[in-house]
Amino acid sequence: MNSRPLTYCSSDPNNEHVLTPNHFLYGQAGGQLAPRVIDNIAFNPKNRWRFVQDLLSKCWKRWTKEYLSTLNTRSKWVDQRRNVAPGDVVLLVETSNPKGHWPLGRIQEVFPGPDGQVRVVRVRTAG
């Protein structure tokens, strides 16, 4: 169950492995295809911490790039839908945010384009 893919599976063997829930639970793909780890090097906590932090950063970048973008699909504006309005609460996604940090904001002002669609807003955050 935790080995099912969360993102698109490529048939190219040179591409990275697809993200699965096991990547977040155990730090690896898991199952029969999980790589065997044999450490012949003496344990060094400082190097291990850096290695784990590097893995977390890579996983977080892949998560935001590959999975989060699939949650909110954007179709062309051919159907009329409600524009965002002042007072709406929004989730701010920025690449500079630390891992797991999703600040909320409230729309203060909207700037509709010539076609009446709102694409630019002024957002107020707690900070």
Could you please describe the fold and organization of this structure?
- The structure is a single chain.
- By secondary structure, the chain is an alpha+beta fold.
- The chain has two domains: about 1-75, no CATH class; about 90-125, no CATH class.
- The protein has helices at about 20-25, 45-70, and strands spanning about 90, 105-110, 120-125.
- It has a three-stranded antiparallel beta sheet, with no helix packed on it.
- The longest helix is centred in the middle third of the chain and has 27 residues, at about 45-70.
- The radius of gyration is 20 Å and the shape is elongated.
How are the SSEs placed, and which strands pair?
Layout: H1 21-25, H2 45-71, E1 89-91, E2 104-112, E3 118-125
Antiparallel strand pairs: 1-2, 2-3
Descriptive keywords:
127 residues; alpha+beta; 16% strand; 2 helices; 2 domains; single chain
Category from helices, strands and their pairing = alpha+beta
Distance linking N and C termini? 40 Å
Strands of the largest sheet, in order across it? 1-2-3
| Helix and strand pattern | HHEEE
Total number of helical segments?
Answer: 2
Low-pLDDT runs of 5+ residues are none
Number of domains: 2
Shape: elongated
